[in-house]
Amino acid sequence: MSTVTSHVEVPAGVSLPIYMDNHATSPLDPRVLEAMLPYFTSKFGNAASRNHSFGWEAEQAVETAREQIARLIGASAKEIIFTSGATESNNLAIKGIAEMYRERGNHIITQVTEHKAILDTCKRLEKHGYRVTYLPVKADGLIDMDDLKRAMDEKTILVSIMAANNETGVLQPIAEIGKLCHQKGVLFHTDAVQAVGKVPINVIADNIDVLSLSGHKLYGPKGVGALYVRRRNPRVQIAAQIDGGGHERGMRSGTLNVPGIVGLGKACQIAFEEMDSEAAYLRGLRDRLRNKLESELDYVQVNGSWEHRLPGNLNMSFVYVEGESLLMGINDVAVSSGSACTSATLEPSYVLKALGLGDDVAHSSIRFGLGRFNTQAEVDYVAAKVIDIVKHLRELSPLYEMVKEGIDLTKIQWAAH
Amino acid sequence: MAYSDKVIDHYNNPRNVGQLDKSSTEVGTGLVGAPECGDVMRLQIRVNPETQVIEEAKFKTFGCGSAIASSSLATEWIKGRTVDDALAIKNTDIVKELSLPPVKIHCSVLAEDAIRAAIGDWKKKNSVAEAAEVTAATAAH
Fold first, then answer.
1. Does A321 touch chain B (CB under 8 A)?
2. Does B129 have pLDDT greater than 80?
3. Average model confidence (pLDDT) for chain A?
4. Of A164, A289, B101, B116, which has the maximum CB count within 10 A?
5. Can you give the pTM of this predicted structure?
6. How far is residue A31 from each of residues A27, A261, B16, measured CA to CA in Å?
């Protein structure tokens, strides 16, 4: 198989391919792996075994992890329920609350740029007699608080708004949302998968009632996540969605994934200790990447709010260049595109479209997800490579040529196919 | 997605990139696709009025690697053919040559459309019969 040629030299200390897709998943931190290893071998006990030391040892490890997770989000250990990941946490939160609070009301409010784990869960509930309001977002990706106020009625039981978006990195005003929900007596769930360990979150200060998080987005293992469920002011009740041995305060049956839980706990402990310095480091890398790209290329735009954004996220459109062709040219760099051509559905990103981007601009988007293990040398290489390929593809782009000649592309009668 | 060597070769070294003078009566221009669909191809031909042979072909494409390769290949194939011979090129020929997967077949369809649209434009300019028919077929796609 031949490869795409490039004129960009690989600097010393950079090995290819470069991973810059940390919103999809993050590499396991070696310190996390080290903490996990004994729980695959000698410390293999079932945390539910109450009558021997193997069980006690496992239970102790699980309780330590619960403390580590709770501390990162300002909760208490008893409020942490372990799950298989954020998709399960989101399903459990929304379906569990909908079922438990059915007599109080049947209305749920969420918003259009949520992850499919939220949107598809809500769609299913709509088939079972629930009413769901999907709030729009503004051009910067944030919801309008007035829209949220207006959407609430006497039947509203739950508001579910994500903390940070997985494509644009846009941070929703969760503290304001939480405050409003508590004033109105409505439960507030947040899918905080992308935000936990990246930006400060405190369930007390932010008035969060239920929160989903996942191990593998913060340098922990895959297949483990958690759900924070508030125990007082108010005490949140969730109907279990999996029946069995009544583990996790009856909310989630199933033998605990002890090594995974230990890893998640360790990942949260590291994040708690290093979040501030890491955020500053990632912001520096991200700004450097943006500045380099913008200094060399015209017709580029950042998608979503710059101010309210995860430190490691840069979502940019390279207008008049199609995203998949750009990915093809930078195939030694792992990033994502909002282009339809990279998805199974052949539809461009619904998240970017919700921000009001035209399909053509959404097709041109690239998501750079910087993480703990990225270096400045990698950023410099990626910037040079993207610039090289965008210039090559714009030489081929009839749209770029037409715009350069002063033709208004919106005035052309395109034959849609 | 894994690309075939031929797609990568056309992506790296696209043939016949550029533009011809649209206003010339010898030049036919086809602009197909739409930016919101993620594919736009512009294919141009310069036809010898005596022989009806396509002496020059140029393209520019906004689209994925397969779209770029399909249009690049199309320019290679039509050069030196008469317009009637060029019309015989089918999208399935392009699929076969580039080993396009099913999800990329629309790229080859667009390249065939671009050939037809360019020839249709040239025929219209030169009042060659059937021009209206070809243009209509392209527009309907």
1. yes
2. no
3. 95
4. A164
5. 0.92
6. 11, 14, 54
**Which residues of B are catalytically annotated?**
37, 107
Per residue in A142-157, pLDDT (tens digit) is 999 999 999 999 999 9
Predicted confidence band of residue B137 (pLDDT cuts 50, 70, 90): very low
pLDDT at A118: 97
Run of H or E residues at A187: strand A187-191
Amino acid (one-letter) located at A25: T
Using 50, 70 and 90 to split pLDDT, how confident is the model at A359? confident
Separation between Cα atoms, residue B73 and residue B16, nearest integer Å: 9
- Identify all chain B residues contacting A328, using CB atoms and an 8 Å cutoff: 3, 8, 11, 64-65
* Cβ atoms of A92 and A191 closer than 8 Å: no
DSSP output for A346-376: ----HHHHHTT--HHHHHTEEEEE--TT--H
Chain B contact for A388, CB < 8 A?
Answer: no
Q: For residues A342 and A363, give the distance between their C-alpha atoms in angstroms, rounded to a whole number.
A: 9
Reference A58, options A68, A78, A40, A44; nearest CA is A44
Q: Is there a catalytic annotation at residue A181?
A: no
Count other C-beta atoms under 10 Å from residue A120's C-beta: 14
Residue A401 CB neighbour total at 10 angstroms: 18
Residues 6 or more apart whose CB falls under 8 angstroms from that of A179 comprise A207
Cross-sheet strand order for the sheet of A187-191: A80-83, A225-229, A210-214, A187-191, A156-160, A107-111, A131-135
Task: Report pLDDT for A13.
Answer: 87
- Count chain A–chain B contacts defined by CB atoms under 8 A: 105
With CA atoms as reference, the chain A residue closest to B16 would be: A396
Give the number of other CB atoms < 10 A from CB of residue A394.
Answer: 22
CB A340 within 8 A of CB A346: yes
Give just the sign of the alpha carbon dihedral A188, A192, A197, A199: negative
Rounded Cα gap, residues B138 and B141, in angstroms: 5
Closest CA to A156 of A106, A122, A195, A196: A106
| pLDDT tens-place string over residues B54-98 | 999 999 999 999 999 999 999 999 999 999 999 999 999 999 999
Instruction: From A232, A249, A332, select the one nearest A6 (Cα to Cα).
Output: A332
Q: Looking at beta carbons, which residues of chain B come within 8 Å of A397?
A: 60-62
pLDDT at A343 (0 to 100): 57
